[in-house]
TrEMBL record:
GO terms for biological process: dTMP biosynthetic process. Gene3D superfamilies: 3.30.1360.170. The lineage of its organism: Bacteria, Bacteria division WOR-3. Signal peptide: none annotated. It comes from candidate division WOR-3 bacterium. SUPFAM superfamilies: Thymidylate synthase-complementing protein Thy1. This is Thymidylate synthase (FAD). One of its GO terms (molecular function) is flavin adenine dinucleotide binding. InterPro entries: Thymidylate_synthase_ThyX, Thymidylate_synthase_ThyX_sf.
């Protein structure tokens, strides 16, 4: 494991004095209560770093204005950390992540052996043997698909054999306030890898910016109590649970309230009138443009069943409410169409059963440990709530022809449901490759 600060923001005009984001935080904190110019405040802060730190501690921690810490931005290299831990880290919304993609890169850098297994040699050996078998099948299926499919398909379909113990790397950009919260959450977990990541993030950031990274103690309330699921997941992979009714009426009235200064009314609106406004809004919007903010007035809630591999993509849509259960290792795994009818279909079904047996033993030792035995093919159930604006972004990206097949299937199903519920509001909803055809 390597956790390293690779970059951070600092005052470029005074960087020769002391390179730290603390001076920017201190200067900006004083803006609201000083008549001095920003330039003067920055100069004073940069010339007296100790006073800047005392000012930060008073404003952020004594007065409780934690938003000041958001002016500090850190870039981290996270290297040789398991997919399970990266998944936990990426749970935090107000940060940016770019992870090594198993869809494009052949994974050869091995798997994590949890420290918790060191005192149980039999279980440790069973765990290592399972991981070696999973990686062997991954490599074998990759070579098979490389002969029958293109290279990208080989990577994205063979990865269903990989476990969450697989080591990966990730670049993370995060502000000081979110970083402090993240450290506290990581240090609260009963898993040594997670606590070690938290400790390393703390060590790297505190030595650079001690006045804004302070409340990092683990808390009982932050402990992850997500249990392994013991029921089998069946049925549609996408089901709508709840939605804003009369979205088109609500949207048009809100839009006119904003643009034309009209009073909100309860009267019903004519279908042609509404459609004409939607047509005009989208007339000049390209596939990369966001629809107006008024689309956020409606929410749609879905129950989704997907593989761990697919969930890794869904969780990147952070302007959403995402509630997950633990993984259901009793369920049949998601099997790529390219592997069906081949020996690898049987191998994946067999490996899933081995995964379940190992996971139960790991769970008994420590409830969170079972996650390391979860395969990318393993299913989980989640509840996803998005507003109308974010759904446009989601479908444009995930229903595009270049999207990975499993998340594209889910996105296509969401697109179909939305167009049935609100044909006017989602008239222009499509993958970005089809957008010109629906305009």
């Amino acid at each position: 494991m390597r956790v390293k600060i690779s970059g951070f923001n600092f005052d470029k005009d005074y960087s020769e004095n002391y390179k730290t984001p603390e001076t920017i935080c201190a200067a900006y904190a004083r803006i609201s209560r000083s008549e001095k110019s920003i330039e003067k405040l920055r100069e004073e802060s940069a010339k007296d770093i100790e006073n800047a730190r005392r000012s930060n501690e008073k404003i952020v921690f004594q007065l409780g204005h934690s938003s000041i810490a958001e002016h500090a931005v850190f870039n981290f290299d996270l290297v040789d950390i398991s997919r399970f831990s990266i998944e936990y880290i990426q749970h935090h919304r107000l940060a940016s992540f770019t992870e090594k993609s198993q869809r494009y890169v052949n994974m050869k850098n091995g798997f994590l052996i949890p420290e918790e297994l060191k005192d149980d040699k039999d279980l440790e050996k069973e765990y290592i043997d399972f991981n070696r078998e999973a990686f062997s099948l991954y490599e074998e299926s990759f070579e098979f698909l490389n002969r029958t499919e293109d290279k990208q398909t080989s990577s994205e379909d063979s990865r269903y054999f990989l476990p969450l113990s697989t080591l990966t790397q990730c670049g993370m950009t995060v502000n000081g306030r979110t970083l402090e919260y993240m450290i506290s959450r990581l240090k609260s977990q009963n898993i040594k890898e997670l606590t070690k990541v938290g400790e390393e993030l703390e060590r790297e950031s505190v030595k650079l910016a001690p006045s804004i990274i302070k409340y990092t103690k683990g808390k009982e309330k932050f402990k992850n109590n997500e249990n392994m699921v013991e029921y089998e997941l069946k049925g549609d992979n996408v089901k709508i649970l709840n939605f804003t009714k009369n979205f088109s009426d609500l949207f048009i009235k809100t839009y006119l309230f904003h643009t034309d200064g009209e009073r909100l009314t309860k009267k019903s609106l004519d279908k042609d009138f509404k459609e004409n406004i939607i047509d005009k809004i989208f007339e000049n919007l390209e596939s990369y443009d966001k629809p107006p903010r008024e689309f956020e007035i409606a929410d749609y809630t879905f129950r989704i069943i997907c593989s761990s591999s697919c969930f890794a993509q869904i969780k990147r849509h952070r302007i959403a409410t995402l509630i997950t259960q633990g993984y259901s290792l009793k369920s049949k795994p998601v099997i790529p169409a390219t592997l069906k009818g081949t020996k690898f279909e049987k191998e994946l079904l067999r490996l899933q059963k081995e995964s379940y047996l190992l996971a139960k033993k790991l769970y008994k030792k420590n409830p969170l440990l079972y996650n390391y035995a979860v395969l990318n093919a393993t299913k989980r159930c989640l509840i996803l709530k998005m507003n109308g604006r974010e759904l446009y972004h989601f479908v444009r990206l995930r229903s595009d022809k270049h999207a990975q097949w499993e998340i594209r299937n889910i996105s296509d199903r969401i697109e179909k449901i939305l167009k049935e519920k609100e044909p006017i509001m989602f008239k222009y909803l499509s993958g970005k490759d089809r957008y010109k055809n629906v305009k």
